[in-house]
Prior knowledge:
Order of helices and strands: HHEEHEHEHEHEHHHEHEHEEE
Distance between the termini: 67 Å
Strand order of the largest sheet: 1-2-4-3-5-6-7-8-9
Structural class: alpha/beta
Shape: elongated
Radius of gyration: 21 Å
Number of strands: 11
Amino acid sequence: MGIRVAAAVVGGLFLVIYSALSWCGAGWLAMPPRRGLSPIHRERLAQMPGHGVRVMSRRTADGTPYLDCEPIPGGQPGDRGRLLRAQLAARPFPVPPFGRITGTIVLLHGWGMRKEDLLFTAERFCAVGFRCLVPDLPGHGDNPRPATNFGSTAAERELPAAVCADAARHRPLAGRPCLWGMSMGAAWAIQSAAIAPARWQRVIAVSPFDALEPVVFARAAAETHAWSTLLEPGLILATRCRSAMWLPAVRPIDGAGRISTPTLIVHGTTDDLIPLAAGRRLFDAVAAPRKRWIEVTNARHGNVLATPQPVFVEMAAWLLTSPESPGSSPPGKSEPRLSSQQTPHSENTECPIMRVRWHPQN
Length: 362
């Protein structure tokens, strides 16, 4: 009798601990600790007018906050914008006069980030003629929705279009908008483009995953070692309970075959979170007749945009080149690895949530 009682107690304790770990893990994934507006963010916002960029804070009808960034007519670009314009002109590549808006692009941030983390990315794209719309994604920043589903629900896939529609109320958009995303935001961009390819002019995905489940469990294995396999079923069920997400179904690759929009995918060769092979599988699945694959040599997940390699030049050129122009990439083109080119130095910072070193795009 004593053995049975002991076994029941041990089994009950195991169930409690297992459930608690699964519940906490699901919360960490779908509801990461939110980053508030830091002094660094406030400083960057204050700097933007001096860099030739006007930043306006807006909200969509459902409460999604976003930054509306546009070049200031008659203004002057900051160092980042001047460098990008000079690099494009050196190719040579036609660059619109500073302050003229020739396009619109929605910038989607990564997991654990917030919209202000992409201010310097917006500054660069504004310098070459783009109006940049930068939302806080669900479960992040000041977005009122409590959890993220990594762009896998119908409402989330429509979020970029909803931001564009709201921005158009304040000022008409310049042509069809483009989509740009990083990591989680990259997978979000792919899933949004898949439901309405004709809505978007171009898509750029930086370090995307083809399927979320392998990425999550590879990270879990690195953290918990032998326990990861045991925790998988509990984490999947707990995530479903805490959000609308069914983890095995978050697969951007499943919709990639419906994308006809010209698509550029950028991936670091030594990505320590999302393997290079995952990004390549997604690229191969994209059905767009014009697509481009770029590998960034020795870049990890957190610094793919902060290496000495000219990634922003490649992305800007992709956005500015019309599909019919001679400078367009031929169908399915894979690019050689980018060679080094001097860019402004950026300090390293630690993102405590991801345990990945994030390098701000200074």
